[in-house]
Amino acid sequence: xxxxxxxxxxxxxxxxxxxxxxxxxxxxxxxxxxxxxxxxxxxxxxxxxxxxxxxxxxxxxxxxxxxxxxxxxxxxxxxxxxxxxxxxxxxxxxxxxxxxxxxxxxxxxxxxxxxxxxxxxxxxxxxxxxxxxxxxxxxxxxxxxxxxxxxxxxxxxxxxxxxxxxxxxxxxxxxxxxxxxxxxxxxxxxxxxxxxxxxxxxx
Length: 203
Fold this sequence. Notes:
With about 200 residues, the protein is of the alpha/beta class. The chain has helices at about 20-25, 35-40, 50-55, 75-85, 125-130, 130-140, 155-175, and strands at about 5-10, 30-35, 60-65, 100-105, 140-145, 145-150.
């Protein structure tokens, strides 16, 4: 079984329709660790040793967050700055994360067509996420294609429940080695992993 860590960040979860449902649907799944950063560190005083231990124990590391101003909530930047230390995560002796998979799970208010050169945001989501893919490369990890839920402002409750069940199913397939994580960097979106043939990861 692959061990999956979800570093979750939402500064106003009580106001969220989508992420509240996503968390409720995946909470308690065996083999999936939810690390709620704002719950653990409301003052952004991150316990670096705890976070590094969590990273060492997991194979797939996902940052789950709303897509705020083309990026992530502030605590994600704080986490990256403090936890991914030179000599541990990167640099000549920084090999702690080598071979792991790293990715983003995001919700976006706009539709996918708005994240195109002719759309109001002018660039694809992948271009805004370049700092994360380069972080993965620097830390000797593989960057998985992002899992994106578009158009959340127009979703009704049934749409949200369907999106949450699809997310849960994808995580269970990853956990159970029915999706080869080596395929994830080659996808456009991690969502497409649900259409991959069921397979057992080669060891």
